[in-house]
From TrEMBL:
The gene is pyrC. CDD domains: DHOase. Pathway: Pyrimidine metabolism; UMP biosynthesis via de novo pathway; (S)-dihydroorotate from bicarbonate: step 3/3. Gene3D superfamilies: Metal-dependent hydrolases (3.20.20.140). HAMAP family: PyrC_classII. It comes from Limnobacter humi. Zn(2+) 2 binds at residues 119, 157, 195. It catalyses: (S)-dihydroorotate + H2O = N-carbamoyl-L-aspartate + H(+). The active site is at 275. This is Dihydroorotase. InterPro entries: Amidohydro-rel, DHOdimr, Dihydroorotase_CS, Metal_Hydrolase.
Amino acid sequence: MASSIAPTTLTIAPPDDWHLHLRDGEALEHVVAATALNFRRAIVMPNLKPPVTTTEQALAYRGRILAAVDKACMSGRYSEADCAQMRQFQPLMVLYLTGATPADEIDRAMVSGAVHAVKLYPAGATTNSDAGVSDLLGQCSAVLARMQALGMPLLVHGEVTEAHVDVFDREAAFIESVMKPLRSRFPSLRVVFEHITTRQAAEYVTDHATRDAQGRLLLAATITPQHLLYNRNALFRGGLQPHWYCLPILKREEHRLALIKAATSGLPQFFLGTDSAPHARHLKEASCGCAGCYSAPYALGLYAEAFESVGALQTTDAFEAFTSRNGPAFYRLPVNPGRFELRRVPETVPERLPFVTDSGIVPLRAGETLTWSVTARE
Ligand SMILES: NC(=O)N[C@@H](CC(=O)O)C(=O)O
């Protein structure tokens, strides 16, 4: 229950985004500034075309991201203060796991210092997942053993892909048929259950977040703003709503409530991952629309709103743990120095933002007014 004394200012350590799609080329140039401004670091997903499967490709991609930040700063569209923020942005790179990834690729990734994780896309589960894995323990045991030995995290898109499993049940089915066997075979593997969407996933991560001999967490989960704010009715409100379509798909209200409980719990295994996934407007508003919500520019306000909806902003502790503290602890990185301030200053999300084609891109909550906005970044 929200108390009558509603806070007006939130001061937090600078946040990170632990699950982000930045794309490449011109698309990258359009979206990178929003993240560089609002987050100090981001785990950058490797589902490009072709996917980022080697350390060499990841390093080259990292260079293109930093060059795109630089180009945005040189464009004259951002103030000097904003550019000073943007130039602090660090992309944390991820390799795309395939059935052919060799174990020594993990050695190269560790040595690089720039690759922070390996991503499992079950083949066919989501955007650009065709090169993903069809039989995890059958195809990838050697590479998983090396990751476990070296402490390289596995980031998991947790959905089964069998046609007979209902799309709304695919995450819960994954826990039983993949996650549990994986963690029982590799009990010391560091795992992030990405963009969780169900009560079953929230409970699994709450109850089974084991720790290593040094007391460090071996299991965590990211949660998106859309899964905290919406249930599956949002997909059908007055007609088909393609901009609310992402994978894993929005679920029933009971699941949203379980995610809110997990995110606001302060438990260290839950942290911010927007899964901001840009697709041009005409590719979403199409007869076969792409999956993904574009949330990066307004993500912090959206999360604040989700926390406030259950009275979880009375102190900033749980909010800051989720946005800025739990992620670095899991990834064994320092909390960002400095501070961000959010205020109760209304901000209207534009109907459209510029993107690679004239159709533009539609951000999550386009045309609506948010309660919270970022008012200072230091
Ligand atoms: N979330 C999505 O719906 N889409 C993501 C892929 C993913 O993370 O599943 C994308 O790359 O577009």
